[in-house]
Amino acid sequence: MFRRFLLRFGSWFVPFLGLLGTGAGADAAPVVLPGTARMAALLSRLAAECRPEDNIFLSDRRVKWLRTVGPAGTDPDAQAFWHYQIATELLQAGANGEARAEYRLVDDLIRTHGLKPGSNSLANLQLNVALTHLREAELRNCLTNHTAEACLFPIEPGGRHQWVEGSRAAMGVLTNFLNGNPDNLSARWLLNVAAMTVGAHPNGVPERWRIGSENFASEHDIGRFNEVAGPAGVGVRQLSGGSAADDFDGDGLIDVLVTSIGFSDPMHLFRNRGDGTFADVSEAAGLAGLTGGLNLVTADYDNDGDVDVFVVRGAWAKEGGRFPDSLLQNRGDGTFEDVTHDAGMVSFHPSQAAVWLDYDGDGWLDLFIGNETAERTAPHPCELYHNNRDGTFSNVAPSIGMALQAYVKGVTAGDYNNDGRPDLYLSIHGRPNKLFRNDGPAGNGWKFTEVAAAAGVALPTFSFPTWFFDFDNDGWEDLFVGGYRISGVADVAADVLGQSSGGERPRLYRNRGDGTFEDVSRAMGLDRVLHAMGANFGDLDNDGWLDFYLGTGDPDLLTLIPNRMFRNDRGKRFQDVTTSGGFGHLQKGHGVSFADFDNDGDQDVHEDLGGAYTGDIYPNALFANPGHGNHWVKVSLVGKGANRAGIGARLRWTLSTPSGPRVIHRTLNSGGSFGCNPLRLEIGLGDAVRVDSLEIRWPGSGTVQTLKGLAVDSTYRVHEGKPEPEVIRLPFFALPPPVRH
Fold first, then answer.
1. Alpha-carbon gap, residue 547 to 525, rounded angstroms
2. How far apart are CA 588 and CA 607, in angstroms?
3. pLDDT digits (tens, 9 = 90+) for 651-685
4. Binning pLDDT at 50, 70 and 90, where does residue 2 land?
5. Please, which residues bridge with residue 662 across strands?
6. In contact, 496 and 488? CB cutoff 8 Å
């Protein structure tokens, strides 16, 4: 409470909070609370009981299991297949030399016994051998001697390998393979990547297989965003996971919370020190023992003014993913407690998709969870937890027809028809997507109507991240749905080269304002094979138009493709700015957060990196915004009749600019479906010289509030119904410089 007093009445003292010792520090004693201890014990037991035969991602344990089981027969074919399985698991576990030895045994069996494996099997064998060399090179260079340019595609001199033997060996394997298979795009792509790592691109790649740098040129120069996670103290090495950026301890500074998919992997909470660095306060914050989780979703579910967190677990693992999710209550003193059991929310369904929304407008946030029902598995219906306003929740999905059974990969909430009620969109992998229109009370319950086909938003059939946002600033929520299916890295290579590809493409749907949407993907420059997982949106250059970042890839280690950043060109087109901004990380991209970590007025980007297999770890990334000279404003909402954080509020900014009046529309939420932005909105104002008015339509309560006299480059807290906002003074500091060779 003392920190909140300082922030509200004397926020000029914020720079000294770290010196005063307020809040949990990295060296503070671990905090163990009863609810957390109970959940930690459950998670530990379930992790110990995991069987490698049920979970394809437990590569290190699957090696031992396969060696215990042995081959399916004594004939050479069975022996070769068994060694191939072990080799692949070793590769995925990070044991590259052992994997190479096993692949050699497979090759010896093929040659000695004249085996006739299929052409795809032979190709995969050679590509995987090349990959063992590339992975070893990555371990020795990008992990052991990590720099800001490591794994940033196209790889520049600062990201080149110091130990070159691995990539050189991979180039030799790939060149030999391409001599016999000249049209194999996967090998061609990997050859170019390997050549970049040792400075042999483009001239060191034969012209017939060369992929020129012009194929990766940006469509706009956004300026270089330096990667500074290491010196800032947030470059934790882990597997894929969630990213949530918010002020978790109430000191006015944006912190970072991350998870990792491994069932025994710890959470990490990084407290912003206010000097450009962060302290890992995970144990002092009471998070010890809370392991696993591929995604995080933030909200103030108990309306007490603190940011709470929901952790989603079990994704992709099918029946091996029967792990409970976690509801973490922020206690307001720098600590969290797992209250899942007390809240009545313990269930055992694999998932990574959830969204907070006040679907019934009672001023308390409810939670929808999109679970994963795969073919030939037990049903895992979706859940809709109604907030009982007493710290408990009730799953009402069965009673109102929302207990859908599907392989749900993303969920988002937005009022697409502007009727004051939040609607739900579900991104489903392998089936048409669903749009549930919120029709309000019906008898003794509530009614949602599924309208995706009628609204024109059922595609793509294979999809992943999704979100509502008003990309064209017309006051109507538009919709993005990421495509997610490729036959391999060759589909991405083909798309880059302008060739036909079977890869699934995303959809950008413009809201027509009549209950239907128009597919504008091609017109907006997004008809591309992007293969997106993690994703979020923000405003990179403070021009008032929403941009977005896609974390790309899949568990397959061969899928070495760059993450992609797109700038919104005034609602007319999205420009690829990946290369100019330095965002093209080749590592698997997961949770993404846009946030102003250094309070300089522009949004930096945090990304959780790493794969799913046990050996595919990598440090997370933090891209520091260089600044673009445009104005901004920040605002936190405090609901009264609406939910406390104002999630779902619609904000209409009327501005004066040198060229005339301008309007910007925003909705308060945490952004995309895989990553969380702060609930303190950060709005780019472009060249505006004055904010003429801010109109807020509060969710649930229906209150419409108009404020005038707000200044640019300022931060405010607005209370529902109060005519004057509070001015918040935040300290400015700089993020550290990047680490270079």
1. 13
2. 10
3. 999 999 999 999 999 999 999 999 999 999 999 99
4. very low
5. 655
6. no
Q: What is the pLDDT of residue 9?
A: 33
For residues 295-302, average pLDDT:
98
Give me the mean pLDDT over the 615-624 stretch. Answer: 97
Residues 6+ apart with CB under 8 A from 738: 147, 148, 226, 227, 228, 231, 624
Take residue 730 and report the two structure tokens written for it: 């935040």
Predicted TM-score of the model (pTM): 0.96
Chain position carrying tokens 């970072």 = 256
577 near 219, Cβ under 8 Å?
A: yes
CA nearest 224: which of 537, 540, 532? 540
The confidence score (pLDDT) of residue 27 equals 59
Distance in angstroms (rounded) separating the CA atoms of residues 562 and 385: 37
Using alpha carbons, select from 369, 574, 546, 407 the residue that is nearest to residue 485.
407
What the block records as the tokens of 582 is 């330095």
**Residue in this structure with the two tokens 């609370």, named with its chain if needed:** 33
In 3D, which of 535, 639, 26 has the Cα closest to residue 287? 26
CA of 11: how far to CAs of 5, 158, 517, in Å?
A: 8, 41, 45
Confidence of residue 21 (pLDDT cuts 50, 70, 90): very low
Distance CA 52, CA 263 (A): 12
Tell me the residue length of the chain: 741
Three-class DSSP category at 161: coil
Q: 436-469: b or e for each residue (b if 16 or more CB lie within 10 Å)? A: bbbeeeeeeebebebbbeebbbbbbebbbbbbbb
> How far is Cα 47 from Cα 55, in angstroms, rounded to an integer?
11
Give pLDDT, residue 7: 34
* Mean pLDDT score, 500-523: 98
The first and second tokens of residue 351, run together, are: 């998932």
Alpha-carbon distance of 573 to 578, in angstroms, equals 15
Other Cβ atoms less than 10 A from the Cβ of 59: the count is: 22
How many whole angstroms separate alpha carbon 327 and alpha carbon 408?
A: 20
Taking CA atoms, 703 is separated from 557, 665, 682, in Å, by: 51, 17, 22
* Contact of 276 with 299, CB cutoff 8 Å: no
State how far the Cα of 670 lies from the Cα of 468, in Å rounded to an integer: 11
Q: Which spans in 10-118 are helix H? A: 17-20, 34-49, 59-69, 76-93, 96-113
d(CA 416, CA 438): 10
Segment holding 7, helix H or strand E = helix 2-9
Q: How confident is the model at residue 12 (pLDDT cuts 50, 70, 90)?
A: very low
Place of tokens 């060779």: 741
* Residue/partner pairs of 603-606 with CB below 8 Å, 24 or more apart: 603/538, 603/539, 603/540, 603/542, 603/682, 604/225, 604/735, 605/225, 605/538, 605/540, 605/549, 606/229, 606/234, 606/243, 606/245, 606/256
Structure tokens at 588: 């698997």
Q: Which helix (H) or strand (E) holds 468?
A: strand 463-469
The span from the CA of 550 to the CA of 674, in Å, is 10
